[in-house]
Amino acid sequence: MLPETLTAVASMAGTAVVRAAGTDAWTNFRGRFSRTLGRGEEQAANGELARLDRTAAELASADPAEADAVRAYQAGVWCTRVELALENLEESQRETFAAELRAAAEEVVGNDSNRQVGNSTVSTDGRTTGGEDASSVATKVGMWIGIAVSLLAVLAFFGINGVGDLDFRTKKVSELKACELANDVWTEYFPARDADPEEFRTYADKLAKVKERTDGDSWLHWFLESDIEYQNGWASSAEDYPEGIEGDPDPPDSSSWIEHCEEIAENK
Fold first, then answer.
1. What's the burial of 91, exposed, middle or buried (CB within 10 Å: 0-12/13-18/19+)?
2. Which distant-in-sequence residues (6+ apart) come within 8 Å of 58 by Cβ?
3. Is 129 helix (H, G, I), strand (E, B) or coil?
4. Which domain does 119 fall in, by range?
5. End-to-end CA distance of the chain
6. Quick one: how many helices (H) and strands (E) in the chain?
7. Is residue 141 part of a domain?
8. pLDDT digits over 152-182, tens only?
Protein backbone atom coordinates (compact mmCIF):
# COMPACT_ATOMS: atom_id res chain seq x y z
CA MET A 1 0.00 0.00 0.00
CA LEU A 2 1.41 3.36 -1.00
CA PRO A 3 1.57 6.15 1.59
CA GLU A 4 -1.04 8.91 1.32
CA THR A 5 1.45 11.41 -0.05
CA LEU A 6 2.06 9.20 -3.09
CA THR A 7 -1.59 8.29 -3.70
CA ALA A 8 -2.27 12.04 -3.65
CA VAL A 9 0.28 12.52 -6.44
CA ALA A 10 -1.37 9.74 -8.43
CA SER A 11 -4.78 11.36 -7.96
CA MET A 12 -3.38 14.70 -9.10
CA ALA A 13 -1.81 13.10 -12.16
CA GLY A 14 -5.09 11.46 -13.17
CA THR A 15 -6.92 14.75 -12.83
CA ALA A 16 -4.24 16.56 -14.84
CA VAL A 17 -4.68 14.19 -17.78
CA VAL A 18 -8.40 14.88 -18.14
CA ARG A 19 -7.94 18.59 -17.44
CA ALA A 20 -5.25 19.01 -20.09
CA ALA A 21 -6.91 16.95 -22.83
CA GLY A 22 -8.37 19.14 -25.55
CA THR A 23 -6.71 22.33 -24.28
CA ASP A 24 -3.69 24.37 -25.35
CA ALA A 25 -1.74 22.75 -22.51
CA TRP A 26 -2.14 19.25 -23.95
CA THR A 27 0.88 19.11 -26.27
CA ASN A 28 3.40 20.16 -23.64
CA PHE A 29 1.75 18.12 -20.90
CA ARG A 30 1.50 14.88 -22.88
CA GLY A 31 5.17 15.09 -23.84
CA ARG A 32 6.43 15.75 -20.34
CA PHE A 33 4.07 13.28 -18.68
CA SER A 34 4.88 10.46 -21.10
CA ARG A 35 8.62 10.98 -20.69
CA THR A 36 8.26 10.88 -16.92
CA LEU A 37 6.20 7.69 -16.94
CA GLY A 38 8.57 6.15 -19.49
CA ARG A 39 11.49 6.62 -17.10
CA GLY A 40 13.88 7.61 -19.88
CA GLU A 41 13.03 4.67 -22.15
CA GLU A 42 11.91 5.83 -25.59
CA GLN A 43 9.71 2.81 -26.31
CA ALA A 44 7.95 3.09 -22.97
CA ALA A 45 7.43 6.83 -23.42
CA ASN A 46 5.96 6.27 -26.88
CA GLY A 47 3.58 3.71 -25.41
CA GLU A 48 2.40 6.26 -22.84
CA LEU A 49 1.98 8.86 -25.60
CA ALA A 50 -0.28 6.48 -27.50
CA ARG A 51 -2.36 5.82 -24.38
CA LEU A 52 -2.66 9.54 -23.67
CA ASP A 53 -3.80 10.21 -27.23
CA ARG A 54 -6.42 7.47 -26.98
CA THR A 55 -7.64 9.03 -23.76
CA ALA A 56 -7.88 12.47 -25.35
CA ALA A 57 -9.79 11.05 -28.32
CA GLU A 58 -12.24 9.22 -26.07
CA LEU A 59 -12.85 12.31 -23.97
CA ALA A 60 -13.44 14.39 -27.08
CA SER A 61 -15.89 11.90 -28.58
CA ALA A 62 -17.85 11.16 -25.39
CA ASP A 63 -21.61 11.60 -25.53
CA PRO A 64 -22.51 14.79 -23.58
CA ALA A 65 -24.79 12.73 -21.35
CA GLU A 66 -21.85 10.50 -20.38
CA ALA A 67 -19.04 13.07 -20.45
CA ASP A 68 -18.69 13.43 -16.68
CA ALA A 69 -18.66 9.66 -16.17
CA VAL A 70 -16.06 9.19 -18.89
CA ARG A 71 -13.87 11.97 -17.48
CA ALA A 72 -14.10 10.51 -13.98
CA TYR A 73 -13.32 7.07 -15.36
CA GLN A 74 -10.25 8.28 -17.27
CA ALA A 75 -8.99 10.17 -14.23
CA GLY A 76 -9.26 6.90 -12.31
CA VAL A 77 -7.45 4.98 -15.04
CA TRP A 78 -4.47 7.31 -14.97
CA CYS A 79 -4.48 7.59 -11.19
CA THR A 80 -4.22 3.81 -10.97
CA ARG A 81 -1.60 3.63 -13.71
CA VAL A 82 0.59 6.08 -11.78
CA GLU A 83 0.04 4.14 -8.54
CA LEU A 84 1.18 0.98 -10.29
CA ALA A 85 4.27 2.73 -11.61
CA LEU A 86 5.10 3.94 -8.10
CA GLU A 87 4.53 0.50 -6.58
CA ASN A 88 6.91 -1.08 -9.08
CA LEU A 89 9.77 1.20 -8.01
CA GLU A 90 12.15 0.70 -5.13
CA GLU A 91 11.18 2.89 -2.18
CA SER A 92 14.35 4.94 -2.64
CA GLN A 93 13.22 5.91 -6.16
CA ARG A 94 9.61 6.76 -5.44
CA GLU A 95 10.00 10.26 -4.02
CA THR A 96 12.02 11.51 -7.00
CA PHE A 97 9.59 9.96 -9.46
CA ALA A 98 6.61 11.39 -7.57
CA ALA A 99 8.18 14.85 -7.55
CA GLU A 100 8.59 14.71 -11.34
CA LEU A 101 4.97 13.63 -11.78
CA ARG A 102 3.72 16.33 -9.42
CA ALA A 103 5.65 19.00 -11.31
CA ALA A 104 4.11 17.89 -14.60
CA ALA A 105 0.60 17.78 -13.11
CA GLU A 106 0.89 21.16 -11.39
CA GLU A 107 1.48 22.84 -14.74
CA VAL A 108 -2.14 21.93 -15.50
CA VAL A 109 -3.99 21.83 -12.17
CA GLY A 110 -1.82 24.13 -10.06
CA ASN A 111 -1.29 23.30 -6.40
CA ASP A 112 -4.88 23.68 -5.17
CA SER A 113 -6.03 21.20 -2.56
CA ASN A 114 -9.03 20.22 -4.72
CA ARG A 115 -9.19 19.38 -8.43
CA GLN A 116 -12.38 19.53 -10.48
CA VAL A 117 -13.18 16.54 -12.73
CA GLY A 118 -16.48 16.98 -14.54
CA ASN A 119 -19.07 17.74 -11.84
CA SER A 120 -16.97 16.12 -9.11
CA THR A 121 -14.13 17.50 -7.06
CA VAL A 122 -11.14 15.24 -6.47
CA SER A 123 -9.05 16.15 -3.44
CA THR A 124 -5.32 15.51 -3.21
CA ASP A 125 -5.97 12.57 -0.93
CA GLY A 126 -7.96 10.93 -3.72
CA ARG A 127 -11.47 11.38 -2.31
CA THR A 128 -14.32 12.64 -4.49
CA THR A 129 -16.91 15.12 -3.26
CA GLY A 130 -19.96 16.72 -4.87
CA GLY A 131 -21.54 15.68 -8.16
CA GLU A 132 -22.94 12.50 -6.67
CA ASP A 133 -23.44 10.59 -9.93
CA ALA A 134 -19.96 11.19 -11.31
CA SER A 135 -18.40 10.58 -7.92
CA SER A 136 -20.19 7.27 -7.61
CA VAL A 137 -19.09 6.23 -11.08
CA ALA A 138 -15.48 7.22 -10.43
CA THR A 139 -15.37 5.23 -7.21
CA LYS A 140 -16.96 2.07 -8.56
CA VAL A 141 -14.98 2.11 -11.78
CA GLY A 142 -11.87 2.69 -9.70
CA MET A 143 -12.56 -0.66 -8.10
CA TRP A 144 -12.74 -2.40 -11.48
CA ILE A 145 -9.47 -0.82 -12.52
CA GLY A 146 -7.91 -1.94 -9.25
CA ILE A 147 -8.88 -5.55 -9.86
CA ALA A 148 -7.15 -5.49 -13.23
CA VAL A 149 -4.05 -3.58 -12.18
CA SER A 150 -3.21 -3.48 -8.49
CA LEU A 151 -6.10 -5.35 -6.96
CA LEU A 152 -5.79 -5.19 -3.19
CA ALA A 153 -4.10 -1.79 -2.95
CA VAL A 154 -6.75 0.05 -4.91
CA LEU A 155 -9.65 -1.77 -3.27
CA ALA A 156 -8.32 -0.78 0.14
CA PHE A 157 -7.70 2.78 -1.05
CA PHE A 158 -11.31 3.24 -2.16
CA GLY A 159 -12.74 1.17 0.69
CA ILE A 160 -15.10 -0.69 -1.64
CA ASN A 161 -16.73 -4.02 -0.87
CA GLY A 162 -19.22 -4.35 -3.71
CA VAL A 163 -20.12 -3.21 -7.18
CA GLY A 164 -23.46 -1.44 -6.73
CA ASP A 165 -25.69 -0.23 -9.52
CA LEU A 166 -24.63 1.86 -12.51
CA ASP A 167 -26.82 3.04 -15.35
CA PHE A 168 -26.72 0.91 -18.51
CA ARG A 169 -24.67 3.27 -20.69
CA THR A 170 -22.03 3.99 -18.08
CA LYS A 171 -21.72 0.31 -17.21
CA LYS A 172 -21.17 -0.63 -20.84
CA VAL A 173 -18.42 2.00 -21.19
CA SER A 174 -16.77 0.73 -18.01
CA GLU A 175 -16.91 -2.90 -19.11
CA LEU A 176 -15.25 -2.21 -22.45
CA LYS A 177 -12.53 -0.11 -20.85
CA ALA A 178 -11.83 -2.75 -18.23
CA CYS A 179 -11.34 -5.32 -20.97
CA GLU A 180 -8.83 -3.13 -22.78
CA LEU A 181 -6.97 -2.44 -19.54
CA ALA A 182 -6.93 -6.11 -18.58
CA ASN A 183 -5.33 -6.95 -21.91
CA ASP A 184 -2.64 -4.29 -21.35
CA VAL A 185 -1.93 -5.62 -17.87
CA TRP A 186 -1.69 -9.27 -18.92
CA THR A 187 0.56 -8.42 -21.84
CA GLU A 188 2.86 -6.17 -19.82
CA TYR A 189 3.01 -7.80 -16.39
CA PHE A 190 2.36 -11.50 -16.97
CA PRO A 191 4.77 -12.57 -19.72
CA ALA A 192 4.18 -16.25 -20.44
CA ARG A 193 7.80 -17.39 -20.49
CA ASP A 194 9.21 -15.54 -17.47
CA ALA A 195 6.61 -15.50 -14.70
CA ASP A 196 6.91 -17.59 -11.56
CA PRO A 197 4.00 -20.07 -11.29
CA GLU A 198 3.51 -18.95 -7.70
CA GLU A 199 2.82 -15.39 -8.90
CA PHE A 200 -0.07 -16.65 -11.00
CA ARG A 201 -1.44 -18.69 -8.09
CA THR A 202 -1.20 -15.75 -5.69
CA TYR A 203 -2.92 -13.42 -8.13
CA ALA A 204 -5.70 -15.97 -8.72
CA ASP A 205 -6.21 -16.36 -4.95
CA LYS A 206 -6.60 -12.59 -4.53
CA LEU A 207 -9.17 -12.50 -7.31
CA ALA A 208 -11.09 -15.38 -5.75
CA LYS A 209 -11.49 -13.48 -2.46
CA VAL A 210 -13.03 -10.53 -4.25
CA LYS A 211 -15.20 -12.78 -6.42
CA GLU A 212 -16.93 -14.06 -3.27
CA ARG A 213 -18.34 -10.57 -2.74
CA THR A 214 -19.85 -10.14 -6.20
CA ASP A 215 -23.26 -10.91 -7.63
CA GLY A 216 -23.12 -14.22 -9.49
CA ASP A 217 -24.93 -12.68 -12.47
CA SER A 218 -22.77 -9.57 -12.70
CA TRP A 219 -20.20 -8.86 -15.37
CA LEU A 220 -17.58 -8.36 -12.67
CA HIS A 221 -18.26 -11.86 -11.35
CA TRP A 222 -17.76 -13.27 -14.84
CA PHE A 223 -14.59 -11.23 -15.34
CA LEU A 224 -13.08 -12.49 -12.09
CA GLU A 225 -14.04 -16.07 -12.84
CA SER A 226 -12.43 -15.87 -16.28
CA ASP A 227 -9.29 -14.23 -14.95
CA ILE A 228 -8.90 -16.79 -12.16
CA GLU A 229 -9.14 -19.61 -14.70
CA TYR A 230 -6.66 -17.82 -16.93
CA GLN A 231 -4.08 -17.29 -14.16
CA ASN A 232 -4.36 -20.85 -12.87
CA GLY A 233 -3.96 -22.11 -16.42
CA TRP A 234 -0.71 -20.20 -16.80
CA ALA A 235 0.47 -21.47 -13.43
CA SER A 236 -0.04 -25.08 -14.52
CA SER A 237 1.66 -24.42 -17.83
CA ALA A 238 4.63 -22.77 -16.14
CA GLU A 239 4.96 -25.68 -13.70
CA ASP A 240 4.79 -28.28 -16.48
CA TYR A 241 7.14 -26.40 -18.80
CA PRO A 242 9.50 -24.31 -16.63
CA GLU A 243 11.68 -23.43 -19.62
CA GLY A 244 8.69 -22.33 -21.70
CA ILE A 245 7.47 -24.05 -24.83
CA GLU A 246 7.47 -22.99 -28.43
CA GLY A 247 4.09 -21.67 -29.48
CA ASP A 248 2.95 -20.50 -26.04
CA PRO A 249 -0.35 -18.66 -26.61
CA ASP A 250 -0.41 -14.92 -26.04
CA PRO A 251 -2.85 -13.28 -23.63
CA PRO A 252 -6.22 -12.57 -25.24
CA ASP A 253 -6.15 -9.45 -27.39
CA SER A 254 -8.30 -6.39 -26.79
CA SER A 255 -10.58 -6.99 -29.76
CA SER A 256 -11.76 -10.38 -28.50
CA TRP A 257 -12.42 -9.01 -25.02
CA ILE A 258 -14.31 -6.03 -26.44
CA GLU A 259 -16.47 -8.22 -28.69
CA HIS A 260 -17.35 -10.45 -25.75
CA CYS A 261 -18.21 -7.49 -23.53
CA GLU A 262 -20.32 -5.86 -26.22
CA GLU A 263 -22.31 -9.08 -26.47
CA ILE A 264 -22.80 -9.17 -22.69
CA ALA A 265 -23.81 -5.50 -22.54
CA GLU A 266 -26.31 -5.88 -25.38
CA ASN A 267 -27.95 -8.84 -23.66
CA LYS A 268 -28.39 -7.15 -20.28
1. exposed
2. 70, 74
3. strand
4. 4-162
5. 36
6. 11, 3
7. yes
8. 333 333 333 333 322 333 444 444 444 444 4
